[in-house]
Amino acid sequence: MKKYTKEHEWVSIEDSVATLGITAYAAKELGDITFVELPEEDDDATQGEVLTVVESVKAATDVFSPVNGTVTEVNEELEDNPQLVNSSPEEDGWICRVGGVDKTEIDDLMTEEEYKSYLNSL
Fold first, then answer.
1. How far apart are CA 90 and CA 39, in angstroms?
2. What are phi and psi of 90, to 5 degrees?
3. Which end of the chain is more exposed for a tag (fewer CB within 10 A), N or C?
4. DSSP β-bridge partners for residue 97
């Protein structure tokens, strides 16, 4: 199950590995994504802290980590094809995977239904 942040990141945890990226809403708001600054493998991810930056023709925006852990994998496809974040933000456009995650860290994040309600309130 995916969970969502108010900063428009999504996270999905399987075992103790979290896959994360930005939401379809964020990708649409940014417009054409031109560059994704991927974190380095073995970087620390700290919940609520900047993990990486996504750049578009409109702006550059920080991406915050929704979990604590260590970056175990990055989506290298984004280096040559950052537009994957636009075309498939919550599938093929994932940014990185973080290991050593405590599943309870996402308990306070929004479900898809709660996130949709949040978007409607903006």
1. 18
2. -110, 15
3. C
4. 19, 73
